[in-house]
């Protein structure tokens, strides 16, 4: 069922991107107050990894990447509430409804429920204040809070066209987290591209990062003190990557931080092949939808034939320099 | 009406007992018992019991015979003294008329208990049931009698209720607590038993049986405390026969047959001719290899008492202690034949059958034991374990039958099976023996399941594996945090036991079987079996090693076990170096013939123990002398509190050959961040003791320094050096993987990945990475092993993993398997071009 949803969503994404202009992409990366030198180094390292991935791997323009840190370098701002407000105010005035705004918080959190905060330099901002900052943003928002006590942000920031990811899944998870590092890795790991379409969606990055988060504790033989959640249905109730129930993840599946590379061949023969490939891909979806009602042998045979056709076609397309 | 499943019933019953036991634990401090109750005609019997409980036999006799109490009361008092002295017939003559005359108290209880001890089951049960059925005035004293009667009748639930309700019993509080503790101890409820014994000691610090009970109950968990409790009992009552009975048991466990026999002689001097003594004498004879005498002793007991089950159970215990589980099972079966309703006979038989690998028959016996006594913790645990193991995956190959937990089978099988087969082939050749099989190998994901498989009880924290001759049980790598042990070394070690046990007909002394197993680990992998090298060198420098003659005793002391294992392995290494594998085989053959160390050494090597000891000492000096000197802590460095870096600097300069000084100096400098200065000290320490392990070891710190200084080449080299000895250090291995990937150092990465996959095979990423390396060098078979393990664990990317499998199958020419694997990859990612190409290649279309 999940696989079916993913593929359907992927098609929707393709159709949408073919019909509309490429969205503009923006990122706000914030390193909060670290508290201790070891966290300062660690958090800064993760933030730099994300910044570098967004710039070099996902092609987001450097002037669209806003970095606020504990000790700002050139072009960065200090991670204070005032600067955060100013940054979001600027974004609100410059982003369009089709844009994607990626927000990434790394550091520590405190408080509970609506009073939960992300620790900044100086006064902190509560969940409600963060929510107020996001309200004027017109584009789709991907908000990743990797700090401890990030769980209340899922309910506090939920909304239409928003993907909220938190590093913790319970109020009791209050220890320093490592999810930021996992997410940073997920943005660049080829293995995170689960459907091997050459792009890593937010859902795929979340899934892969969740796996790394889990492995971190397993490899040390420790009880896990954090479990990441994703929320994108607007009900404020998230789910984790391993959960088999819940609709969260659909929007994340259709959300990419990179720009889709459109293949526009001039060779008519190649164009025909690509059209045929689209048709076969649609047949894949149809066959999958029918799977529950088909005898397994019949399904297997149909699946194999379809895969062979698709593989043969794919080879032909690549031979002609497409794909 | 439905019957709850068997396991559910067991849970219910055990829970009930646990609840009862918990409730029954004394909440209030019991009243102290002593002389506050005056000696009167009414209290005479209690005063006699008090004196006997303290081991004051003469005083008990005086009380019993020198008062103006009524004759009947005196008769009971004297009978109690006689029972203490083992004069059963005389006691019976006194008690029987009293019972016939209507005594429903102590005389009835003691006569009933005597009947049961002497095999007069019908009369005994009748008398004790009669006692239990009394109504009327329930004094605490009488409730205590009833509780003891119920205990003797194996009505544990009623006994527990009665013990719980007795309340304060003047002069008999310690008796109450001890009897209750005994009942709990017999059912392996050691924690509760200990509480009861301590309550008894609180009530009467001179109550000998409380110390003896405590000693028994603590024996597994804290042998030192157990020894101290026995010693205390001996101080309180030097001639108490129960003290000497326990002493005999302990001497027997320590393989000191002479000491055991002498202890039994002391028992006999005070209390001759008891069945307790007889059972232990039979065990001593068995330990001496005189089976005829052992069985003769038991047979004479059976002739006198047709229900003398204890004799065979004692032989079974001794046989099991010597790893002769088939013998143990045979004796337990004889006990079952004597008394088909004896729960412990069935329980022991079940336990021994499990150790011989006959789990089906074991279950039958344990089920029967459970029917007869649902409160025996070991029986309950073993049945629960068998229920758990019913879902295990069984896999037969060659001489082996493997049992894996279902969720671990696909991961462990590809690793465990080839390793076990390699061990088997190696040892068959080395020991010239094809062991009796099949060899059952069970791998438990929960350590407590392994512990129950081994001992019937959870715990056993110090053990990782066990071998019963044909059955090997080990903890799975998932049973403990990754990096805390090598399950592969454990498996190799235990399979080596199979050979030394069987080659010696299960008569190999413990020092040798452990020595061989640890040495075999080292022979296979030079880092295995050397984890205690530094500790040994340190002991050598302090002249605290054991030598050939001290090794057996060292194996009896839990605190010395680590060193004993290591030194035994060195002794084995030395013997092999001198006399080859043939010499080792000859030694095992000598033990098989019943020889002890002196005779075995003479037969195998033509040497005395002293001669072997001398040459071994020279060997140890040659091999470990330098390390021992490096491990010696200079006097000036023995004061560690408040030492400054300046002091350490002076010490380091004065003691360049002291590992501890150089390491301490290097660690201190590293901590302060003076990395440049730390390096030479740590290098020196590493040179002095290359096998030092752990996070604070010289190599680990040198790697850290190199990394901090940006010299990742050096960091990788240090980590590789560290892993040469620190074979299960997955933290260091993971660090090495990260550094190696950054530097594209495939060789170092491969070394590190191997350590991770071997130590923590549940790390899917390690398997996936190893598979990639294998595929890159076209080692498709090797890749497939890693890929299947990775797939079983849930790989990071399912589409990639299936595609990798398809590639490996293609490489091996298994096109149909490749086709299926490619289709699985496409199921995840239909447009995955690599999987598409693999599919076409598999069907011949590319």
Report on the structure:
The complex is a heterodimer of chains A (323) and B (846). Chain A is α/β, with parallel strands linked by helices and 323 residues long. Chain A has two domains: 2-253, Rossmann fold; 268-319. Helix content of chain A is 46%, strand content 13%. Chain A has ten helices and ten strands. Chain A has helices spanning 2-19, 37-57, 81-94, 127-134, 152-157, 179-188, 202-220, 250-253, 268-290, 296-319; strands spanning 25-31, 65-69, 77-78, 100-106, 109-110, 117-118, 125-126, 140-145, 162-166, 229-231. In chain A, the strands form two sheets. A seven-stranded mixed beta sheet of chain A has the order 3-2-1-4-8-9-10, with helices on both faces. Chain A has a three-stranded antiparallel beta sheet with strand order 5-6-7. Among the domains of chain B are: 239-317; 391-503, Collagenase ColT, N-terminal domain (Glutaredoxin); 513-629, no CATH class; 763-846, Serine Threonine Protein Phosphatase 5, Tetratricopeptide repeat (Alpha Horseshoe). Helix content of chain B is 70%, strand content 3%. In chain B, helix 8 runs parallel beside helix 10, helix 18 (309-321) packs parallel to helix 20 (343-356) and helix 39 packs parallel to helix 41 (798-811). Chain B is globular. Residues 1-31 of chain B have low confidence and may be disordered. The chains are: A alpha/beta (323), B mainly alpha (846). At the A-B interface, helix 7 and helix 10 of A face helix 41, helix 42 and helix 43 of B.
């Amino acid at each position: 069922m999940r696989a079916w949803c993913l593929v359907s969503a992927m098609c929707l994404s393709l159709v949408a991107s073919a019909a509309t202009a490429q969205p503009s992409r923006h990122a706000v990366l914030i390193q909060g107050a670290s508290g201790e030198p070891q966290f300062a180094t660690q958090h800064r390292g993760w933030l730099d990894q994300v910044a570098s991935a967004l710039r070099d791997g996902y092609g987001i323009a450097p002037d669209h990447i806003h970095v606020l840190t504990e000790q700002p370098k050139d072009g960065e701002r200090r991670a204070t509430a005032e600067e955060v407000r100013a940054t979001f105010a600027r974004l609100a005035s410059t982003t369009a409804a089709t844009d994607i705004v990626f927000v990434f918080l790394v550091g520590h959190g405190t408080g509970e429920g609506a009073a939960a905060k992300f620790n900044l330099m100086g006064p902190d901002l509560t969940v409600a204040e963060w929510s107020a900052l996001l309200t004027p943003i017109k584009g789709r928002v991907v908000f990743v809070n990797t700090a401890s006590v990030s769980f209340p942000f899922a309910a506090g920031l939920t909304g239409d066209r928003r993907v909220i990811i938190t590093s913790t899944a319970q109020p009791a998870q209050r220890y320093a987290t490592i999810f930021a590092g996992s997410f940073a890795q997920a943005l660049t790991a080829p293995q995170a591209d689960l459907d091997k379409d050459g792009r890593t969606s937010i859902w795929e990055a979340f899934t892969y990062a969740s796996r790394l988060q889990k492995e971190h504790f397993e490899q040390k033989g420790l009880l896990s003190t954090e479990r990441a959640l994703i929320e994108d249905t607007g009900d404020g109730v998230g789910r984790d990557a391993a959960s088999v129930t819940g609709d969260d993840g659909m929007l994340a599946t259709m959300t990419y931080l990179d720009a889709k590379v459109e293949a526009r061949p001039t060779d008519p023969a190649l164009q025909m092949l690509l059209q045929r490939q689209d048709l076969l891909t649609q047949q894949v979806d149809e066959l999958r939808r029918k799977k529950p009602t088909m005898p397994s042998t019949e399904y297997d045979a149909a699946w194999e034939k379809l895969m062979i056709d698709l593989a043969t076609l794919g080879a032909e397309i690549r031979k002609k320099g497409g794909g | 009406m439905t019957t709850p499943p068997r396991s559910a019933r067991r849970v219910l019953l055990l829970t009930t007992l646990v609840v009862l036991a918990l409730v029954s634990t004394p909440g209030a401090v019991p009243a102290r018992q002593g002389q506050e109750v005056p000696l009167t005609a009414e209290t005479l019997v209690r005063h006699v019991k008090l004196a006997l409980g303290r081991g004051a036999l003469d005083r008990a006799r005086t009380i019993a015979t020198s008062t103006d109490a009524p004759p009947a009361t005196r008769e009971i008092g004297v009978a109690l003294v006689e029972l203490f002295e083992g004069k059963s017939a005389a006691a019976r003559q006194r008690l029987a008329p009293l019972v016939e005359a209507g005594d429903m108290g102590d005389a009835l209880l003691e006569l009933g208990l005597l009947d049961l001890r002497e095999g007069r089951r019908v009369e005994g049960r009748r008398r004790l049931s009669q006692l239990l059925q009394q109504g009327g005035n329930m004094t605490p004293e009488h409730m205590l009698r009833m509780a003891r009667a119920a205990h003797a009748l194996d009505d544990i639930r009623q006994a527990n209720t009665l013990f719980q309700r007795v309340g304060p019993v003047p002069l008999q509080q310690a008796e109450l607590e001890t009897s209750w503790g005994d009942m709990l101890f017999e059912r392996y409820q050691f924690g509760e038993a200990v509480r009861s014994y301590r309550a008894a000691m609180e009530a009467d610090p001179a109550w000998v049986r409380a110390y003896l009970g405590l000693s028994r109950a603590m024996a597994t968990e804290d042998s030192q405390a157990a020894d101290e409790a026995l010693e205390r009992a001996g101080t309180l009552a030097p001639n108490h026969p129960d003290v000497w009975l326990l002493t005999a048991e302990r001497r027997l466990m320590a393989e000191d047959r002479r000491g055991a026999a002498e202890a039994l002689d002391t028992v006999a001097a005070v209390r001759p001719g008891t069945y307790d003594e007889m059972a232990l004498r039979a065990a001593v004879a068995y330990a001496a290899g005189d089976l005829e005498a052992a069985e003769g002793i038991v047979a004479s007991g059976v002739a006198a008492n047709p229900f003398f089950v204890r004799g065979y159970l004692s032989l079974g215990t001794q046989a099991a202690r010597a790893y002769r589980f088939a013998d143990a099972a045979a004796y337990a079966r004889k006990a079952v034949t004597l008394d088909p309703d004896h729960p412990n006979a069935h329980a022991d038989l079940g336990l021994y059958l499990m150790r011989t690998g006959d789990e089906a028959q074991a279950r039958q016996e344990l089920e029967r034991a459970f029917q007869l006594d649902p409160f025996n913790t070991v029986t309950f645990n073993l049945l629960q374990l068998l229920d758990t193991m019913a879902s295990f995956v069984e896999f037969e190959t060659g001489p082996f039958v493997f049992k894996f937990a279902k969720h671990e089978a696909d991961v462990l099988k590809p690793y465990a099976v080839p390793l076990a087969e390699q061990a088997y082939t190696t040892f068959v050749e080395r020991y010239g023996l094809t062991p009796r099989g099949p060899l059952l190998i069970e791998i438990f994901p929960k350590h407590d399941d392994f512990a129950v498989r081994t001992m019937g009880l959870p715990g056993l924290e110090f053990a990782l594996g066990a071998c019963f001759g044909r059955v090997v049980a080990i903890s799975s790598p998932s049973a403990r945090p990754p990096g805390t042990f090598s399950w592969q070394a454990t498996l190799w070690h235990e399979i080596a036991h199979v050979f030394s046990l069987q080659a010696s007909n299960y008569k190999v002394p413990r020092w040798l079987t452990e020595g061989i197993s640890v040495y075999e680990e080292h022979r296979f992998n030079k880092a295995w079996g050397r984890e205690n090298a530094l500790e040994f060198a340190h002991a050598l420098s302090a002249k605290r090693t054991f030598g050939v003659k001290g090794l057996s005793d060292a194996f009896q002391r839990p605190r010395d076990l680590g060193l004993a294992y290591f030194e035994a392995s060195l002794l084995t290494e030395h013997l092999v170096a001198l006399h080859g594998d043939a010499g080792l085989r000859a030694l095992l053959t000598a033990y098989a013939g019943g020889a002890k160390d002196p005779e075995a050494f003479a037969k195998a090597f033509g040497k005395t123990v002293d001669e072997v000891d001398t040459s071994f000492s020279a060997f140890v000096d040659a091999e470990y002398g330098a390390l021992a000197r490096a491990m010696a802590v200079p006097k000036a460095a023995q004061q560690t509190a408040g030492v400054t870096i300046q002091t350490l600097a002076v010490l380091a300069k004065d003691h360049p050959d002291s590992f501890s000084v150089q390491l301490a100096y290097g660690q201190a400098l590293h901590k302060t961040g003076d990395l440049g200065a730390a390096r030479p000290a740590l290098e020196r320490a590493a040179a002095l003791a290359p096998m030092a392990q752990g996070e604070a070891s010289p190599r680990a710190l040198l790697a850290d320094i190199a990394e901090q200084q940006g010299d990742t080449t050096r960091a990788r080299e240090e980590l590789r050096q560290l892993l040469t000895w620190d074979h299960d250090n997955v933290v260091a291995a993971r660090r090495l993987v990260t550094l190696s990937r950054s530097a594209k150092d495939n060789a170092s990465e491969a070394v590190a990945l191997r350590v991770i996959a071997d130590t923590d095979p549940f790390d899917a990423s390690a398997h996936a990475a190893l598979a990639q390396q294998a595929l890159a060098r076209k080692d498709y078979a090797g890749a497939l092993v890693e890929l299947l393990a990775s797939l079983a664990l849930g790989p990071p990317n399912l589409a990639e993993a299936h595609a990798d499998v398809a590639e490996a199958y293609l490489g091996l020419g298994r096109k149909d398997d490749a086709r299926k694997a490619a289709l699985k990859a496409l199921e995840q990612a239909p447009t995955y071009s690599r999987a598409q190409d693999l599919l076409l290649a598999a069907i011949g279309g590319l």
